[in-house]
Design goal:
The protein is mainly alpha-helical. Helix content is 77%, strand content 10%. The chain has a two-stranded antiparallel sheet with strand order 1-2. The protein is elongated and about 90 Å long.
Length: 119
């Protein structure tokens, strides 16, 4: 896996260095509604625009996946609740286990009589 990472990282780094070296001219950016004017090298402006686009896209994806995260949290709570119930039922079953003769005898009786025999 580390080798694949290097295979991808080295060419991308070379492309970025070539891009920076070939786009060093200064550009001026005017922010229209505001009386703001910024100037800087073209490569910096383009890289900052890419980073800003990435952050805005990541934020939009995070907001749009809110419903999925909520369903996942609810499912996780339900799984924990069901696991706790299974554990409780197993403990009750272990406590209620009786000999096979008593179990078959109490199975034939109505529920109220079987409960009174166990107590």
């Amino acid at each position: 896996m580390k080798r694949i990472s290097w295979i991808i990282t080295i060419p991308v780094t070379i492309l970025i260095v070539v891009f920076v070296l070939s786009n060093r001219q200064v550009v001026e950016i005017d922010v229209w509604p505001l009386e703001l004017s910024l100037s800087g090298p073209l490569y910096l402006v383009m890289i900052l625009a890419l980073i800003l686009g990435f952050v805005i896209g990541a934020g939009a994806m995070w907001v749009s996946s809110g419903a999925s995260r909520k369903r996942a949290r609810q499912a996780e709570r339900q799984v924990r609740s069901l696991n706790a119930e299974v554990a409780r039922l197993k403990r009750e079953q272990e406590q209620d286990t009786t000999g096979p003769a008593t179990a078959s005898a109490t199975a034939a009786l109505p529920k109220a009589q079987a409960t009174s025999l166990r107590a």
